[in-house]
Amino acid sequence: MKLTLPLRLVLTVALLSLAGSASAQDDDEKLKPAEPDFSLVSLPTSLRLPKFSSAFRVTHRFTGPLTGDFGDVVGNLFGLDSGAVIGLEYRFGIVKDGQVGIHRSSDNRTIEFFGQYGVMRQRPGRPIDISAAVAIEGTNNFRDSYSPSLGAILSHEVGDRAAFYVEPMWVNNSNPLPSALADHNDTFMLGIGGRVRISSTVTLVAETAPRLRGYKPGSHHGSFGIEKRAGGHLFQLNFSDSFGTTWAQLARGGTSSHDWYLGFNLSRKFF
Amino acid sequence: MRIHIPVIVAALALFTACDENLSKIAGPSPNLEPTFASIQRDIFETADSAGRVSCIGCHTSTGRNPSGGLNLNHDVAYEQLINLASRGKPSAVRVVPGDPDASYLVQKLEGAAGIAGRRMPFGGAPFLTDGQILILRRWIAIGAPRN
Hints:
The structure holds 2 protein chains of 2 kinds.
Chain A: H1 5-16, E1 54-65, H2 70-75, E2 84-95, E3 98-105, E4 110-120, E5 129-138, H3 139-142, E6 146-158, E7 162-172, E8 186-197, E9 202-209, E10 211-214, E11 221-230, E12 233-240, H4 247-252, E13 261-270
Antiparallel strand pairs in A: 1-2, 1-13, 2-3, 3-4, 4-5, 5-6, 6-7, 7-8, 8-9, 8-10, 9-11, 11-12, 12-13
Chain B: H1 5-15, H2 22-26, H3 36-44, H4 77-81, H5 104-110, H6 130-141
């Protein structure tokens, strides 16, 4: 297999994680107001999960589009009358800075196993936090089409007000067809997103994941939302142009009709 | 130095390139590939396990006039298709390299609107499966090479 430049970058970050470098003083159980959760809307954040702690999340995307005649949209209760793509996710801290998890999406009955390792923390004089992320997902309950992915999560927090993310990600076998029938079997994409706190418990969140190279049908994924934290719970109302919640789903993008859909995320930290 | 699980997983993910099986899509003609040799062998010249008849039963110059003026005999099939106008619908071209939608061969096999005559095979179902047509389309999309 040929190592492309993005792949090499990603590999470098992954190898960097060989030399874990977190100090004992990091208190990962303490709330970080600008990074209250492990996800933006569908993209991950760099939030560390304390060892042996866990977190649970439900993602819900209504499949009825919000566009069209306003009367129809209201009549459909903003898409709620149509079906939904539902994801259930559980993650667990296995080592300090390292977490693994499983995400099950009703879209093609996809199961995704993922791991994330915090390589470098943001500190005074070091403005960036880096994590390595890997995942492998399979459709039809992990029996049919497998797509491994590999990437990095770079983030920068602005005090306890805001956090911004850049996430280069390479997804193999993003195309559901055999490669003999397709021009590309991989996708290289760049997740970009952020969160801004507008009150002590309310935040605005937005993200996009343009596909830069490889297989990129339909429209690029984009999403924005507003969320409210209540203790260890986070309630997020979001608007997206795709139903994707896993890496390969994001690589496949949204519909080419440029429709937008209502959705929500609920997450709960167990620590 | 400790080697963490994510790194091992990352390395595994890197070296297991995944792909789908072509034969799953090819269905009743499991060896079908997007090459001219394979399309000749698995579609034009043989029936398949779904009961679809071969094309050369009618599209041959051996002992008859080829149906629709299309001769799919092994040595002439390529010239009979590429950039050649249809007999039944002279404004259409049998195979337009690079453009499956515009290729009359595809339209006749899909039973597209606007074709002259019937959907192929002439005697009716079973027709080619969606997967078989997808593979044929791919051969045309990549330029319909004589391979």
